[in-house]
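Hi all, a correction to my earlier message: I attached the wrong file for Cobalamin synthesis G N-terminal. Here's the right sequence:
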Amino acid sequence: MRIAIIALTKNASKLANEIGQKLKGDVYVKEKYTIPEGYAIEGDFIDFVHKIFRKYQGLVFVMATGIVVRAIAGVVKDKFTDPAVVVVDEKGSLP
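and the right structure:
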């Protein structure tokens, strides 16, 4: 299963890297927090999410749920074809 882990802040990026190592997923963070094994989020965040949404079977967002809802709103189709979406806060808790 291809999984992307996505974060926007410094603390969230640290957790995203930990999750990425455990799940063997691709880690996407803001450019200033990128690590050698990760990828930079470039440009508009919503455009970025739309671009990668169908490339993965699972997306783990380390950020507020409201941000994620707005980001995926334009690309969600149905539960049979959409990737799994999980949201955790910067402390690793489910909201």
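Sorry for the mix-up. The longest helix spans residues 10-23.
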